[in-house]
Design goal:
It is a single chain. With 254 residues, this protein is mainly α. It is built from 7 helices and no strands. It folds into 2 domains: 59 residues; 178 residues, no CATH class. Helix 1 runs antiparallel to helix 2 and helix 2 crosses helix 3.
């Protein structure tokens, strides 16, 4: 992208210089050793240069300025939903840590002072994948009144993946306003093996689906690379999206 901009701007500068050169510096009139009319050569160069300048100005007005205006409208939307997706992953990590009996880590869901330690490391995943029985019935007393509690942790995994996938789809609908780095990270998450495996279970199965094993060892390596992508997205969002956030719930400070 930077090379593209350098070429475009370089051709603009060259065209402007040629037009000024031909019209205001008679002593430095462009000449040719070929048997071609020098006047015609200079007029041709001038015509091409003017045409390029015209197209460049048209590009700036119609494409660049419109894109900048659209970005001011769309980037807050992308930023808000990116952090919402990240927070859902944080809630999932909190659920995993809690179910495995790991140390409590305070989870900050605003854009300020986010505690990335909530994402499990190698040792955490060893404990999570060996301790959690995804098919064991969760305490039925846990849950909000009026809502059906998910009875097994495997259903919790399906539920969070579907929730995250929903927000990823919303964000990716605005892909033309993203740079390639963000687009790649989001696409890598959505097409990740663990993510695809979990959304292959219909959301209606969160109350009944069971895993074929009584532990999560089969997911250990996959979960590690999956959470690494979220850490990558956290770092990207902190550098490039945080300043665009508009949602008040994401901007509160404790």
């Amino acid at each position: 992208m930077k090379l593209y901009k350098i070429i475009i701007n370089g051709l603009f500068a060259l065209s402007l210089i040629l037009i000024i050169w031909i019209n205001f510096f008679d002593n430095y009139f462009i000449k040719t050793t070929l048997l071609i009319d020098t006047e015609k050569v200079n007029r041709l160069i001038e015509t091409i240069s003017i045409a390029y300048l015209t197209s460049f100005i048209f590009y700036i007005v119609v494409v660049v300025l419109k894109t900048k205006r659209d970005e001011k409208i769309i980037l807050p939307f992308i930023a808000d939903y990116t952090y919402v997706a990240l927070n859902n992953c944080m809630f999932f990590c909190f659920s995993m840590r809690s179910a495995a009996g790991l140390e409590y880590i305070n989870t900050e869901t605003s854009i300020y002072k986010r505690n990335l330690n909530i994402y499990p490391n190698e040792n955490d995943l060893n404990a999570i994948c060996t301790t959690i029985n995804p098919n064991k019935t969760i305490n039925e007393d846990i849950g909000l009144e009026g809502f059906t509690a998910i009875p097994h942790f495997f259903g919790v995994m399906i539920n969070y993946t579907h929730r995250i996938d929903y927000f990823l789809k919303i964000i990716l609908e605005k892909s033309r306003f993203m740079d390639t780095e963000l687009l790649r990270i989001l696409t890598d998450i959505q097409t990740h093996g663990y993510h695809q495996h979990m959304i292959s279970y219909d959301k209606s199965l969160v109350l009944t689906a069971k895993h074929r094993h009584d532990d999560l060892k089969v997911f250990k390596d996959s979960l590690k690379s999956y959470f690494d992508l979220y850490l990558k997205l956290e770092n990207y969002a902190d550098k490039n999206l945080k300043r665009y956030v508009e949602r008040k719930s994401l901007k509160h400070k404790k």
